[in-house]
Amino acid sequence: ALTGGTAEGARGGAGAYLSGGTIALTRVVVSGNTAAGSREYATGAGLFIYEFYGDADVTIADSTITGNVAT
Asked: Phi/psi of residue 40, each to 5°?
């Protein structure tokens, strides 16, 4: 489970920060995460998929993403 996280500073990805490569999330709960974000980094309280350094191929299956707050 990726729950109850708080992103550092003005960044996103309190649950998970995903950047480049192939990523598979299966039977995962992502909930209760908080991220402030910014204009530069945007937000993504539960999941933040960042493709600046390369493409990210993300597959999410049989999972729950709920109750995350990006401010």
From this structure: -70, -45
